[in-house]
Amino acid sequence: MTYLSYASPVRVAPVTAPQRGQSEYADGAARTLPIAVYGNRWCGLTQMIGRALSRAGLDYEYVDLDEHPSVEQRLQMLTGGRLRTPVVYVDGQWLVAPSIGQLRTALMRAGAA
């Protein structure tokens, strides 16, 4: 897990590509995909999502919204004004306060699980 001040899916300057999480195809070939978790350290669901990604062996960027309120404001615009945490970005998909099942489904769509 990497703690970053900014992660690119929200396009906060400076714009950088999200870190690539590792996954494997059935033949053992490695594939990378961007995964970012935007949340709060005090949020139980955020912590649960982070543990699930770590157990799956996937690298992801973590942005603590308490430390980066400008990112929180951008996410509010992205999610229609009402922000619930965590917001998870998986290879082009945005998930707002996902369950573990919804996260698994997004990872499967992305080819990571």
Describe the structure.
- By secondary structure, this protein is α/β, with parallel strands linked by helices.
- The protein has one domain: Glutaredoxin (3-Layer(aba) Sandwich), CATH 3.40.30.
- Helix content is 29%, strand content 26%.
- Strands 1, 2, 3, 4, 5 and 6 form a six-stranded mixed sheet that branches.
- Strand 5 and strand 6 form a beta hairpin.
- The N terminus is likely disordered.
Element layout with pairings:
Elements: E1 2-3, E2 20-24, E3 30-39, H1 44-55, E4 61-64, H2 69-78, E5 87-90, E6 93-96, H3 100-110
Parallel strand pairs: 1-4, 3-4
Antiparallel strand pairs: 2-3, 3-5, 5-6
Please provide a brief summary of the model.
By secondary structure, the protein is α/β, with parallel strands linked by helices. The protein has helices spanning 44-55, 69-78, 100-110; strands at 2-3, 20-24, 30-39, 61-64, 87-90, 93-96.
